[in-house]
Design brief:
By secondary structure, this protein is an alpha+beta fold. It has 11 helices and 12 strands.
Length: 334
């Protein structure tokens, strides 16, 4: 199974930066065996295309199509921790109801690696800002997210980029699938970094936990729990603003200021593990007092606000594990 999905050879052809567009179709590009591929969106090291493929039908019946997403990546251009080949290997092993399923992979000229997934029409970042997005839909999608995180953590996998746009939805109300494992970490999957020397340049701006901002290379799966708490806050609060603000330039100092201003400036009594961080104590910060969760999330249901408060904590060992979060009243009570 693994060999079949990862059967790709690397070409010595020059990388043109896009899929082979020398085979245009009447309705789009031909990428491998997938015709009618149209550009959907771009990532830092990839481009995603939407393509239609014929579905198998009984003899004599009308043919139909289904839609896939083609993630065209450029492994040779990637810098650690980005690695699409490792992403593909991991996804072969990660088979779970709320983890995006990998259909197949294949190579393209220029050393490109194409990962094929079911096409999902929207993501949680877009859906939660719809006027008709209800609390029940939010709960369904967040339950799927925490189920995926619990599954990953049971296998000692850290996603490292939990955010609403990486939660893909089959419809505006779910089900939801955790996607984009391009920087995921697993001790069993080389070339992941050593457990005590992980790369700290992971995560996306305002979803990054404070231990990364102070140089902790020994972080663990609890990094995902902080980010997941930020997602819960964003999705369930009526404003749908991010919980923390890293400024227009996404700077680490702006993010530190936003976290401290919201949760209060920590010291070694409230954040003992910080004493081990390489960059702790190099700067003196204003002594902010915590604002309290009712003030930070005034439009959030009480149970959702309590869930956030148990996930977004300085001391990483105090963050509520994903498996336990699924038993929280927010998910259990109707």
């Amino acid at each position: 199974m693994t060999d079949a999905l990862l059967d790709h050879g690397h070409s010595d052809a020059q990388d043109t930066g896009r899929p082979d567009d020398s085979l245009p179709d009447a309705d789009g590009l031909a990428i491998g065996k997938y015709a009618r591929a149209t550009h959907h969106k771009d990532g830092l090291f990839s481009s995603v295309y939407r393509a239609e493929v014929p579905a198998e039908a009984p003899a004599g019946s009308a043919g139909s199509t289904h839609v896939v997403a083609l993630k065209v990546t450029f492994p040779s251009a990637m810098t650690p921790p980005h690695d699409s080949e490792r992403e593909a290997r991991m996804l072969v092993k990660l088979r779970f109801s709320s983890v995006i399923p990998l259909i197949e992979t294949f190579s393209q000229p220029g050393g490109r690696l194409v990962l094929v997934f079911p096409f999902m029409p929207c993501d949680l970042a877009t859906a939660c800002r719809r006027r008709d997005f209800k609390h029940e839909a939010a709960k369904t999608c967040l339950r799927d997210l925490f189920s995926a995180i619990a599954y990953l953590h049971s296998l000692n996998v850290i996603h490292r980029d939990i955010k609403p746009s990486n939660v893909l939805l089959k419809s505006p109300t779910g089900p939801a699938y955790l996607a984009d494992f391009g920087i995921a970490w697993s001790q069993d999957e080389p070339p992941s970094e050593p457990a005590d020397a992980k790369i700290t340049d992971v995560g996306t701006t305002c979803y990054r936990p404070p231990e990364l901002l102070f140089g902790n290379t020994r972080y663990d799966h609890t990094l995902d729990l902080w980010a997941a708490g930020c997602v819960v806050a964003e999705v369930t609060d009526g404003s749908h603003d991010t919980l923390f603000d890293s400024g227009e330039l996404g700077s680490e100092l702006a993010l530190i200021h936003s976290i401290f201003d919201s949760l209060g400036t920590p010291d070694l009594q409230t954040w003992p593990e910080a004493a081990l961080f390489p960059d702790w104590g190099k700067m003196v910060f204003y002594d902010y007092q915590p604002k309290g969760w009712s003030k930070l999330l005034p439009n959030t249901p009480d149970t959702a606000r309590d869930l956030v408060s148990q996930l977004v904590r300085y001391q990483s060992s105090e963050r509520l594990p994903a498996e336990q979060a699924l038993q929280h009243p927010y998910f259990v009570e109707s």
